[in-house]
Each structure stands twice: as structure tokens, then as C-alpha cells.
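Handoff note, outgoing to incoming analyst
You'll be picking up this chain. Sequence as last confirmed:
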Amino acid sequence: MALKVGVVGMSGIGNNHANCHANDDLAELVAVCDIVKERADNAAERLGVKAYYNLADMIDGEPDLDIVDVGTGGYENGSWHYEPTMEALEKGKHVLV
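Most recent structure output, in case you need it:
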């Protein structure tokens, strides 16, 4: 059974992680998230998944999500990794950082 994964932060490493999940038989990439709409939309279209523009909406919109992969970077995403990691953990999700 594949684990359902959502990736937050779709520049740089987040795109690399999303590609890996999309090509891994043990993972099912179901969503991507970025506060920059264009990045989320481009990744979602390329990978055939749903785009979200904030992490809370992704977690709420994907109730069967098993893992949140945090690939955020820089101040434009709210910080580096702490906030999205804690937000996902508080919602009961497993997190890859």
C-alpha cells in the first residue's frame, strides 16, 4: 500500500522531492503546496495532482494524507522548515523534513 504524500514548498528541493514521490511505488503523490500560486499550479499540472496555496488547506483538503514533505526554503515561505513542520505535526501528520 502506497503512502499518500503532499509536498509543501515547490521550488528547488520541493520539486525534487515531489518527483521522487511521483516515481516511487511506495508513495502516492496526491498534492503540492506553495504560497506562490504559479509554482504550485505549475508543479500540480506537471505531476497531475491538486495544487494548494497554504498548508492548512492542503491538510484539510486531503484527509487521507499520510505524510507532509516539507521542502520550503527562505523567508518567502514563512520561514525555513519549523512552521510548516509544526503545523503538520499538530494536525497529526507524519513529516519529512
